[in-house]
Structure formats: structure tokens, C-alpha cells
Amino acid sequence: MTRRRARARAAKAWAGRFATPTAPAAEAFTTSLPFDRRFYPHDIAGSVAHTRALVRARLLTGREGTRLERGLVRVRRELDAGRFRFLPSDEDIHMAIERRLTELVGPVGGKLHTGRSRNDQVALDLRLWLRAECDTLDAALARLQQALTALARRYRDALLPGYTHLQRAQPILLAHHLLAYREMLARDRTRLRDCRARADELPLGAGALAGAGFPLDRRFVARQLGFARVTANSVDAVADRDAAAEFLAAAAICAVHLSRLAEELVLWATEEFGFIELPDGFATGSSMMPQKKNPDVAELVRGKTGRVMGALVALLTTLKGLPLAYNKDLQEDKPPLFDAADTLRQSLDVLAAMLPHLRFDTGRMAAAADGLLLATDLADLLVERGVPFRRAHAIVGKLVRHCLATGTSLRELDATVLGKHAPQLTPALVRRLTPARSVARRRVLGGTAPREVARQLARATREEAR
Q1: Which residue of the set 286, 287, 402, 409 is catalytic?
Q2: Superfamily (CATH H level) for 119-366
Q3: Beta bridge partners of 170
Q4: Which CATH architecture has domain 3-114?
Q5: CATH 1.10.275.10 domain position(s) in the chain
Q6: Is residue 241 within 8 Å of residue 319, measured between CB atoms?
Q7: Cβ 219 vs Cβ 196: under 8 Å
Q8: Per-residue pLDDT at 309 exceeds 90
Q9: Is 177 an active-site residue?
Q10: Strand spans (E) along 174-259
Q11: pLDDT value of position 241
Q12: Is the distance from CB of 115 to CB of 207 less than 8 angstroms?
């Protein structure tokens, strides 16, 4: 190849307006290829649909359309196999694919961009990626839900102290606690599905901002790509990044849920709690202290939450001052978006892999769920005997002070103490207070009683079987 041909091959698609080539520093600064190359399956799918629309509009002959489609298939194969050779002059994945296509099929490759701008092209790729990523994360969330359900079922009878303000509050079932996280993840899945539904609009055909200047059938293209509808306003179509922001908001909330679960695993694995034994395969040691077993996996899930939350702030900050329609700032939507999606997916996957290997010390948890945690049940006994709750609360508060001062438990209260503070109660009645009976009392819908937890588990099983 001659030097002149090499220079021509490396020329920008928009170079006709400019007398001198792009400065190397500017080219390195403005390229998006290092991160947007992951769009390639979506870019090629969009180009195939656009080719068919051009044939339909008689802007391409059937033969030209077939030639372009076959060329796009070859480009896809090269990219799939890792044999695609990117050039320094490739600004982004869109230009790289078009450049290679033209090398393969000749001048007809230059007709592919008819009626299309990179503005609506990248908007299309983004929406195609969002739809696919929402589906991928939804599946990852489902796997983590299944892991939580299986763990809850395995320990369905185990007692645990429930906490408020990180202080022991009332006995609950461990299964009930684990299923609370399953509910959080269910809401995360609905948020991602909502995001997917709003992203399910075809922006292609909006052109640079004013719409295509050719009679392209946008509804036909939407059907080709499986979109539910087409965008209603061409300016909005190329400027809009709401679906990306919504995706990151959903991802950030989900990451916070994972962080809360990770934090509890970290706490429960401490000697101070001692509720779980971390699996060796998901823990690390210390390079200095031989006895250490560190919850690094859970800590990293907790730590990576900051990256996901930061991605949302980064995108919103980019968007907040932009006039309509397209601005190059929008190129910066993808690095935080991709990083957040990757980080969240990795966190979901590692937790789903780790949870089945957790081992709970049910004896220690049950012991921790006893004692003064039964104070509310004692107050409930008084209420059942006609004492107003506020009065019952005050009475039991004094009994708790007595227990703390004497080092006794509520079940050890004798007739003298009860007669002074709560004559409605007897030592025999108080001795019947146990964590298991306390849990069994919480029979309201959604409560921690065994029958309610069994109902929650049955519902989870039905949902997971769909």
C-alpha cells in the first residue's frame, strides 16, 4: 500500500471541512474507542436494520443491501474472534466498523451512513446495550435471590436477635431476616425492568437532531430491533440520557442493598458476634498475623458500592448543564455506566457464589436472642390482662432495671418483685417466656412467626419456578 493510500485510509469521515489533520494530542483526548468498543454487537445490529430501511426506502438496491449485510456479518465475526484490527484513526466503534466494512465491500460501504448521524447511532447503541444489561442484571439478581431463599430454607428454624440501632431488640427467625434482603432485591429487579421499559424506544432516524432527510420507515426499524416504540421528538432522541441515569440510580440503590448485606456478614463473622463461619474460599488471611481470617469479599462488595454511587453522580453532573441537542460531553456517559454495570454484576455474582457456603452458629444466635429481648413480650402479657400499653411499657422498664441491677433474667422474676410491679403476672406465666414463643406470637401477615416465614418461602419458591 502506498503512503498516499495509507493517509487516505486513515482520514476522518468528516475531514473534508478541515485543511489540516487532527492533532495527535486532540485525537488521543477525544477518542472513545477504548471504552465504546463493547457496543460493537449493538452497533452492527443497528447497521443491519438501517441497511434494510435504506433498501425499503429505495436508497439502496437489494444487491447493495445484501452486500452490506454480508460485510457486516464478516466484521462481526472478526470482532467476535478478536481478529479485528483497530487503527489509531478510529475515533470510536462506529467509525471503526464503517471503515472496516468499506475495506471489505468497497465504495458501497460509504452508503451505509445515509440518513444517519453518529448522534442517533450512539443513542441507539446505548439503548440496545441498556436493554441487554437490564436483562443480564435481572438474571444475576434472580440468582442471588435464589441463594438467599435456599439459605433461609436451610436455617428456617434458627433464631436470631433482631436489631434496631445495632442493639438487640427482639427475637426473629434467621430465615425472616434473610428473606428481607430478598424483598430488597425484588424491588431492584422492578426498577431495572422499569428502566428497560423506558429505554425501549428507537432513536434511530432522529439524525443529528432534526430527523432524517430521507423517507426512512422508523417503525419498520423498530420492529427489526424489537423496540416497543419510536422516539417522539428527534431533538430529545439524541440529547436524552434519562434511561442511563435511571439505570445508574437503580444500580446505586441495588449496590446499597448489597453493601448492607455485606456489612452484616462482616459483623456476624467477628468474634464479638460469632454468628457465622466464613468459607475459606471466600476469605483471606493476613501477611503478618497467622490467626486472621478476613472477610475481604464482603468488604469489597461494601467498598465497591462507592463506585456505583459515584457513577450516578458523575453522569448527572455531566448532564446538568447541557443545552439541547447533542454535545460531546455525552461521550462521558459510557465510562461510568459500563463500570457501574460491571461492578454491580461482579458483586451480585460473588455473593450468590458465597452464600451457600456460609455456616451459622445457631446455638450462639439462639442464646443471643434470649434474655431482655423478651421485654416486649412481657409488656404484651400485661396488655392482654387489661393494662394500657404505655403503662405496661413503664412497668416492664422498671422490671428491666431490676434485672440489670441484680444480674437476673426476666424469666427469673419472683412473686415478690412481680407483686410489687406487675401483680397481673405470676412467676409461672413469666417462666413461659422464650424466644421461640416470642417469635410464634408474631403471626401478622409479613411477621416473623414460623407459619408466616413458611408462607414467604412458599411464595419465593413459586416466583423462582416461573
Answers
A1: 286
A2: Fumarase/aspartase (Central domain) (1.20.200.10)
A3: 162
A4: Orthogonal Bundle (1.10)
A5: 3-114
A6: yes
A7: no
A8: yes
A9: no
A10: 201-202, 229-230
A11: 97
A12: yes
Segment (H or E) for 170: strand 167-173
Q: ω before 325 within 30° of 0 (cis)?
A: yes
In three-state secondary structure terms, 163 is: strand
Q: Round to the nearest angstrom and report the end-to-end CA distance of the chain.
A: 59
Find all residues with CB under 8 Å of 153, minimum gap 6, and list them. Answer: 175, 457
Distance CA 172, CA 110 (A): 67
Q: Which of 32, 165, 176, 393 is catalytic?
A: 165
Query: Would you call 294 helix, strand, or coil by DSSP?
Result: strand
Q: Is the pLDDT of residue 2 over 60?
A: no
User: Is 287 one of the catalytic residues?
Assistant: no
Amino acid 4: pLDDT: 44
Rounded-to-integer distance, Cα 319 and Cα 330, Å: 8
Mean pLDDT on 358-378: 97
Q: Are 259 and 301 in contact (CB under 8 A)?
A: yes
Longest dimension (CA), the chain: 107
Q: How many helices (H) and strands (E) does the chain have?
A: 20, 6
Task: Give the whole-angstrom CA distance, residue 438 versus residue 377.
Answer: 6
What is the model's pLDDT at position 427?
A: 95
Task: Name the CATH superfamily, with its identifier, for domain 370-465.
Answer: Fumarase/aspartase (C-terminal domain) (1.10.40.30)
261 alpha-carbon distance from chain centroid: 14
At 466, is the pLDDT very low, low, confident or very high (cuts 50, 70, 90)? Answer: confident
CA dist 281 to 5, 293, 344, 410, Å? 56, 11, 21, 42
Instruction: Report whether pLDDT(463) > 80.
Output: yes
Which pLDDT score is estimated for 3? 40
Q: Where in the chain is the domain with CATH 1.20.200.10?
A: 119-366
Is the pLDDT at 6 greater than 60? The verdict is no
User: Is 401 exposed, middle or buried (CB count within 10 Å of its CB: 0-12, 13-18, 19+)?
Assistant: exposed
- Residue 8, pLDDT > 80, answer no
Is the pTM for the entire model greater than 0.85?
yes
DSSP 226: T
pLDDT score for 20:
81
